[in-house]
Amino acid sequence: MCISISQVSRFRTNLFLGSSCCERVHGWFKNNSTPKLLNIRSSSVNGKSRWVRRNVSTTTQGGRSNTKSSVLGGAVPVTRIVDAESTAKIQQQQPFGNLQQRLAENKDLSSLLTVIVSDLETTGLHRVKERIIEIAAQDLAGGENSTFQSLINPGVPILNASIHGIRNDMVCRPEVPRMEEMIPIFLRYVQSRQKPGGYVMIVAHNGKTFDFQFLINEFNRCSYEIPPNWLFFDSLPLARESMKSVDATVKPKASLSALGDYYNLVRDGDAHRALSDVLLLSQVFQRLTIDLKLSLSDLVLRSYTTSDLIAAMAKNKKA
Hints:
By secondary structure, the chain is α+β, with helices and mostly antiparallel strands. It has helices at 19-26, 99-104, 161-164, 168-171, 179-193, 211-221, 236-246, 256-262, 274-291, 296-301, 306-318; strands at residues 15-17, 36-45, 48-54, 56-61, 66-71, 80-83, 113-122, 132-139, 147-151, 199-204, 230-234.
């Protein structure tokens, strides 16, 4: 089978961000602030990825409240165009040294740290042999262009479409980038969300043993360095801790879908599609931090650097 570069799929996000979910952890929202609901679509023209905000009206349901919000007015013109060919490879920076401890002690942490929830879909479970076929991310701070999603041409046949619904014909189109083309686009997206001189925390559910390993291996395969100001946070241990506190007599159900049901959250899209999982995890993650009374400093201290993850991967390989 011949796999060619495929078409970047459109994405739509109904993003609900309110002070009740984020205020404790991030300090980015004022009391009684108005919830924001965004609809963002992507398209690809001549190899350039776009993010466009459009109108939407929907209902978001949560464990504590039901809030109906809408964005009115005309369509917003394209505000950012990312061209992979014009993006230079990020240069290696000096190591930070004990980054988590130093960053957690910063009194102005909320003005330095960007928290981005992410998810990947892959051709299989093997972290080295299999390939990423979809990536999505969402900056919890919200705002325009806060959400990113794209299919990726893995260069190999997709044999597990029954899990995520991503078929070979969906990635066998000329507009969809391969991983070596997607990495600079994704780096540019993260840079666009990063605060000046700040740091980025990438959050994923079961990220330590799955998403982050795929990401590290794909960056390495494509000869890219993961920026040293990135931290990685696995939300699965938080979920297990929170669910265990609810009922310590049974094994906690900490899957993303189970957490969505527990918090009475409505999923936007199908399970095991990257953007749908990101939108759900964005809400679940914020509720977990509130339930466990975790500050942003607490999250930083529980995060991993790239070196931490590489060391864990090497240890597991030897075991």
